[in-house]
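Typical record was shown:
=====
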Amino acid sequence: MRLLEIRMWSSFWSWNRGVSFLAIEPVARGFACILRGAVYRIPSDSRQRNGFNRRFSLSDHIHQQSVPVALAGYRLDQALAQMFPEYSRSRLTQWLKSGEILVDGAQCKPRMRLAGGEDVRIAASMATEVAVLPQAVDIEVAYEDDDVLVLNKPAGLVVHPGAGNPDQTLQNGLLHRWPETAVLPRAGLIHRIDKETSGLLLVAKHLTAHTTLTRALAEREIHREYYAICHGVLTGGGTIDAPIGRHPRDRLKMAVRDAGRPAVTHYRVDTRFVAHTAVRVILETGRTHQIRVHFAHRKHALIGDPVYGGRLRIPPGNDVALAEALRGFRRQALHAQKLSFAHPTTGDETMVSAELPADLSSLRDALAANQQSLER
C-alpha cells in the first residue's frame, strides 16, 4: 500500500473508517494547530475513497541539509536560496511560513540569523491547482524535451483564464495534455502573449525548470524576437525607451507614462513597402502590450490593432487586392517568431522559430505585390 507522509496540518476531520487526520496547508494562521515533528501516514486508497484527489493532489519534495559554515550570519531565507537554488526564494519563504521547512526540528522565521551547522529539512507538498480544469485544446508544439515545451500559439487563443475567458485557454490545454504541469504556477507558462498575437511561448515541465527559466526571464536572459508590420515607412531601426503604465482614463489600455514601469523595445527594418514597414522587434522588457504601445506612441501603430491602431487607413493609390487585405486583417500584425534561451538542465543555447501564420503571410504578400505593381 502506497503511503503519503505529511508533517503539518491545520484542519482535521473524521473519515468513515476509524478516525484519521488529513493535512492541508494552513488557511487561518490565527488558530492553526502546528504540531512539530509528528508524522502521520495516510493510505493512498483511503484518500481516494474519501474524495481527497477531487480537491487536490500532492507532489512531495523532501530534502535535508546542514547549513554550511560559510553561511553563518546569513538570514535563513537568504541561506535557503543558496542551499536550494532549484526553488524560487518566494516559494522557500512560503514553505517557511507554512511550517514545511524546519530548522533543527522547529519552525523558524525567515529573518532568523544562522550560526552554521543547523539541520534544515524540507518536507513540502505542492498542491495541484484545480481552479483551471484540463480541457482538450488544439496545441501546436514547436519544441519539446523532458524539461521544457515551446508552443506555437495561434491568434485568437487566450493564454490563461481571466475575465470573459473562463476556459478553453492555452492553460486548460496544457493541463489536459501535460497533467504533470498542474503543480506549477499557471501550468508552467513562463511568459504570455496577447490573445490576438500569434507565436512562440515557453513552458516549463517541472519545478526546477520553472524556477530556472523564471529567473532567466527576470534577468533578461530569454530572448524573444517578433515580426510586425506597422503603418508608415520607417527610415531605419532603433530603440524605443519609454515607460509604460495603465492608461489614465481607459483602464483596459496601457500608455506611455512618466510614472510607468521601464520598457525598452529594439527594432530593425525588415522590408519597406509603399506605406508600411515590416520590422523585427526584440524585447528587452516585457510590459503588457509593449510593442503595440511603443509603436503607436511613435505614430507607427501596427496594422489591424483594434486597441491602439485607430481607424482603418488605406493609403491612396494602392491596388484593390491590398485594400481588401487591409480591411480583412482584424488583429494586430504581430507574431512571436523566434525564442532563444539557455536550457534549464544542460545550459545549452536553445533556439526555436515559427513560420508566419497564413493570415500574416498573406498580408505581407499583398503589400509586396502592391509595391511591385507600382514600381513597374
Summary: Residues 1-59 have pLDDT under 50 and may be disordered. The chain has nine helices and 16 strands. The CA atoms of residues 199 and 234 lie 24 Å apart.
